[in-house]
Write a structure and sequence with these properties.
Length: about 240
Amino acid sequence: MKALQWGILCAGVFLWAGCNVIRPKAQTPFGHYYLDSSGNFNSVDRVVLLELENQSTQIELSAQLTQAMADGLEKKHLFSIHTVNHMDPLWSRLNLDEVAACSEEDMVSIGQELNVDAVIFGTIKRYRSYPHLLMALHLKMMDVRHGRLLWAMEQVWDSTDRQVELRMQKYFKKEIRRGYQPLDWEIMVTSPRAFNKFVVYEIGQTLPHLVPRDHSLTMPDQKKQPILPFELSQDPF
């Protein structure tokens, strides 16, 4: 009798499962990143983004992704941002090819030369557009007023990874929604440009959730907004 009851129970569970599709959820995307919990992001107003070092075989990718990052971070309205590319005279004068190896004192000097509060720089470690899209980045943000690391991340985005796919679907529904029929969200895995925008979006999500500021206005007496709670990685890399 007990065996019969158990069999009926199991059959009911299987029938329920067959009628209800269990959909996996996208997990938090940010694998390896560091955020200085004591860093004063509220006081960062002017940021320069250096053209990324490119270790991929896509020669044009460095300039394209650097500009896409600048555009994406500008939309967050956390700070004003401009770029410096390899062809800029400042690049050779400040020896920015070696920025990753600079001492704290050197970073402060660079900040004074560029008249900024922070510098973002990094490397495109890998990039592939065929047979599927893949990108690996290593990025850092230095407070060049004090020569300290504010933020860093190292991440790989592989369009064949199930979690990355789920996050791309979520990003498409939230940020794009329409205009790419019949591909819909699958434009993210077929278009390098769309994929790069997704990567930039996730980069921006690792920065602290500050209250956006209007950098077109200069108000010396305006109080800075507090940094909202944010999940941090424990160790810089």
